Amino acid sequence: MACPSFRTSSWAPRLPCVDGDSSTRFRGRNLSGDLLPSLGATTTQQPPKLRRHLVSPYDPRYKVWEVFLILLVVYSAWICPLEFAFLRYLPRAPFIVDDVVNGFFAVDIVLTFFVPYVDSKSYLLVDDPKKIAVRYLSSWFAFDVCSTFPFHSISLLFNRHEHSLGLKFLNALRLWRLRRVSSLFARLEKDIRFNYAVIRCTKLISVTLFAIHCAGCINYLIADRYPDPRRTWIGASMPDFREAGLWVRYVTSLYWSITTMTTTGYGDLHAENTREMLFGIAYMLFNLWLTAYLIGNMTNLVVHSTSRTRDFRDMVQAASEFAARNQLPQQIEEQMLNHICLRFRTEGLKQQETLEILPKAMRASISLCLFFPVVHGSYLFKGVSSGFIQQLVTEMQAEYFATKEDVMLQNDKPSDLHLLVSGAVDVLAFLDGTEQIYGKAAEGELLGETGVMSNKPQPFTFRTTKLSQILRISRSKLMDIMQENREDGQIIRSNFQQKLRMEQRLYIATHQDDRVGAFEQRLDP
């Protein structure tokens, strides 16, 4: 397959890390924000820095600026509907803050002309000022200007008490800034430093609160603008509601909005005229969509968190039914269930999946760090070179075995060599039709080396007595490594012969019966 073509004169964008439910903490910097060079590009082909007078979108200072603007967007999202509905004569004081906020967003409009962007087709960072300007002018520039223009301050030059709906709708254009919050949540959902479920729930709660706030403000505006104040939803219970404090009117509006959204409908506040009825119909239709959106998202979060448990219970049930249907012995059924339970526990750790996505050299470094001491301490590898141990460790795979689970069976083909890292294992043998314990394997001991080294069927059955972690390497890979390192291979064979003779003498000294010949035949390489 041909490699994709990339320009080597630019930088490729960062790639976000996706993880639905990870909350890992990093002591170092967040690597997901680094720029990745294009394929085939060398460091000499990459420009050392952006063009002059440009601001990198990945600069930490620019990130702080974006966060600051998000806080201003949250303020605008709250104050804009409030001013739209409750401040009938638009007093000057609240709009001084609005003008300051608009000033910050005006600075951001100018700054955007100096911030490179990632091309959607080539996925490269474009730092050409002309292309940056053309892209911004042809996309969000007009909307950003309209949402930043100080319409109220300009209107005061002509009429200090301007309170027309037209001006209010122009001020409502500031809600366009909410797209920044949407982009923020999209980035946070992909950021591995934050828990996905928490970010998602925060987004759903924010959408709900904003909908309640806006609906309450709009419904109050309809009542405030109605010719007969007493024939309104709030005037029926508060005839002089315009004389009440802002806090009382705002809380009453939120109360109506929440009871309508939740379909509680106590009946104390209800539509009194056609305008309010029409808005109530529209709001309830919107609530149908919002409720479906919330339920769908929450269902996905719950299903995602419980799907593994449900699959685990189904698998246990299927295994129990299989054992009962085929009349398997109790011991085999227990082994099956223990293995399924252990698999459920280990899958939750995602250890194997984590290792598989890493480069081979990194996997080798991790294996050396974790297993080099225990492999080097095994009798079979005493005296071999460190290079041989490194080759051996990188080819080994770690596995977990539940209690009373068979690691290998007597007379099995010697396909793998096992090393007990932690736990305990019984060494069993069938003699005279009965299963007897021949010995016990402790941590750091090898399992099945007799069959592997002599290329004969395994003489024993190895069964765990508690949860055990075991390293495994195939016989073919072991023999290949020994063939490549002949001196180390001779040392291994010598160690095996010495251990084998020692075990035979010990067994003959402790078991003086007619079964000695049978064991000598099994252990003889």
UniProtKB/TrEMBL annotation:
Localization: Membrane
Gene Ontology molecular functions: voltage-gated potassium channel activity
Keywords per UniProt: Ion channel, Ion transport, Membrane, Potassium, Potassium channel, Potassium transport, Transmembrane, Transmembrane helix, Transport, Voltage-gated channel
Transmembrane domains' residue ranges: 67-87, 99-118, 204-223, 247-266, 278-296
Residues of the Cyclic nucleotide-binding domain: 380-499
Entry coiled-coil feature ranges: none
Protein task: Potassium channel.
Family assignment from sequence similarity: Belongs to the potassium channel family. Plant (TC 1.A.1.4) subfamily.
Domain description: The segment S4 is probably the voltage-sensor and is characterized by a series of positively charged amino acids. The pore-forming region H5 is enclosed by the transmembrane segments S5 and S6 in the Shaker-type (1P/6TM) and contains the GYGD signature motif which seems to be involved in potassium selectivity.
Protein name, UniProt field: Potassium channel
